[in-house]
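So, can you check this one?
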Amino acid sequence: MKKNRGIVSLVLTVVLIALMGFTVLVGFGKTGTGAMKNIKLGLDLKGGVSITYQVKDKNPTEEEMSDTIYKLQKRVEQYSKEASVYQEGSDRINIEIPGVSDANKILDELGKPGALEFRTQDGETVITGADVESASARAGEDQMGNREYSVELNLNENGKEKFAKATEENVGKQIAIIYDEAEISSPRVNEAITGGQAYITGNFTYEEADNLAATIRIGGLKLELEELRSNVVGAQLGEQAISTSLKAGAIGLALILVFMIFVYYLPGVASGLALLIYTELVLLILNGFNITLTLPGIAGIILGIGMAVDANVIIFARVREEMSHGKSVKNSLKTGFQKAMSAIVDGNVTTLIAAAVLWFRGSGTVKGFAQTLAIGIIVSMFTALVVTRLIVFAFYAVGLRKESLYYRPRKEREPIHFVEKRNVFFIFSVVLIAAGIAVMGVNSSRGKGAFAYGLEFEGGTSTNVTFNEDYTIDEIDEKIVPIVEEVTGDRNVQTQKIAGTNQVIIKTVTLGLDKREELNQAMKDEFGVDESLITAENISATVSNEMRQDAVVAVIIATVCMLLYIWFRFKDIRFAASAILALLHDVFVVIGFYAIARISVGNTFIACMLTIVGYSINATIVIFDRIREELHYQSKKSELMEVVNKSITQTLTRSIYTSLTTFVMVAILFIMGVSSIREFAAPLMMGVVCGAYSSVCITGALWYVMRMKIGKASESRNTKK
């Protein structure tokens, strides 16, 4: 009976892989529903809509422009989390929305930013959008306890006084909200609102409340805008960028499958099948939830494949330990999955907490990154704890029960004295971080800047060139970009092609008048371009100060939440404190690497740092889980240092294997990828190496020092906990 169930399970697994593979590669129906080709691609991969607004107000201040850009950013995120808004010249705002192609529809839905009024039934304007400080959707309960969605409004001081007077005079009457000369809501005033905070209620769904709040926000801009131009732009990167990234992913996946089978035998086959299911599921979810995928997103998915191996490595390492103690294959499999559960859950939940905080508090690319991060975590947990387990026990059920298929006896490794060498590790880490800080200081003093900031963080010059022929994206990369790089000295040139024209937008570092003229001359000499058809404008950073603040606040909150979770799970704040310190260690080392290697700090910088945070905390949890387990079995004679050394040594194989597989995936991306992928891959490789080093050499030693120095008097009472 069990044998039949095992056969059925294996057959269903193969059928599922084949079916999902067919769906991902081909899809169903004429449109190829579910196919990978239908995944919504970002501006860098497929193109989208570019809209330029002219500010109607004369001489807008820097604060007014910054506030308007930030609020527009929040508004356009309804179309894509990867949308960007930035300043062009002194009084223009540019919006780029990936994955859409109908500029007129976007313009209609955005309306006329800055044209919002609250009017009484008599037609008197009470307040305007300039009086609204913020608007957001809120979930709550009505008087009957039913779920209710509303819009929360917060007014500034000027609006607070005017609204208090108007609501006091209009209790029982309606005050209409007029946007772009159309009534979007007409709530009734139930009572005088004097505190500057109001709630609009009704039979809203969350989406309706969120859309109303977004409309009020865009109407609450400090500046009024009018459309100057709108274009459908092509992809920033050619087909070569996508194809090389996909090839890198396929090669990396194949290498990992071979590695897992070579190291873990039959369980390695099971993990390989589960890994295929993981990859297919992630692609189907991206398609099903209409998530915009950018090139860093592809890199993130490929990186996720490497990290998904981690859970399987933890499980099979546990299984081998049980078999080395003389247990049967069946009992070892059961116990291995059980003992690996806590490390897998704790490690992934801490990273999932970070993803959730980044989603709620982040903006733009941070929010988009949080989506793919959360998807990867959830799917990897499911495939490791459910799919791999199902396949392994199916193998056992059909008669594959020889011990040699699962484990070959090896000499148990003697505990390595990591803790005794802690001072060496600590000094090395301090020197490493200090070197990065020193280089930043030297670069700043020389006027080069602490980092090599990219367009996203520092802004630059946007040059619009009308060529005599219609170049493809790949031709632009091969023929035009090298010349632009030579003239400007910028190795991170970004290009966009305006659909239906011969125009190409070239974005570089900020160019002075001499460099602009030199670039114009190069375009004329090399391509016969008419200089009168070349225009240039300085553009602001696409990552605004507010978005940077959102990212920093999100990371801080995520760190605190992770600390609290680890404290709760391990019942010892010293575990949490040492984990966070090790995490900060990895972040500072990689930041130093950015400074020393002069790698461009752009959108991929945010994604890279957040990836390292998740990767680092996950590796640390595995070691702490083992220390917690060993403390439970600690005898009075065993010393704490021995426990830590033993725990690190027992998990060393896991640390090496997981770091190796992840490093291989990223290294292949670096070797085969385009320049923007290399910018993402190089610091990630450093992050993977640094994360492995800190997990093995720093975290356990830090916890040991804290345990010995903090709360030493209560040591005897806590030993068995």
